[in-house]
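Q: I'm writing up a methods section and want to include an example of the input and output format. Could you take the sequence below and give the corresponding predicted structure tokens, formatted cleanly so I can copy it straight into the document?
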Amino acid sequence: MTEVDKSELRYPIVFPIKVIGLDEPDFEDFAVEIVRRHVPELLEENILSRLSSGEKYRSVSFQFIAESRAQVDELYAELTSHKRVLMIL
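A: Here is the clean output for your methods example:
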């Protein structure tokens, strides 16, 4: 097995992602809207929003079934194209 084979994810797979930005009134809705474009079957119970301890930042965490690498790549590409998104984990 080559090094590439070891790190290759097998789809479908449960996939977590966390989107972080400034705590603005609509940041959670903004992040959810983008993720739902790529994961239409996203369930409400798989979304968690948290305010940072200093109350300056908000993280919105998602867990979903990723169907393909292309789906995940397209989601990351759209999220990183927005200046409101400061970090993705």
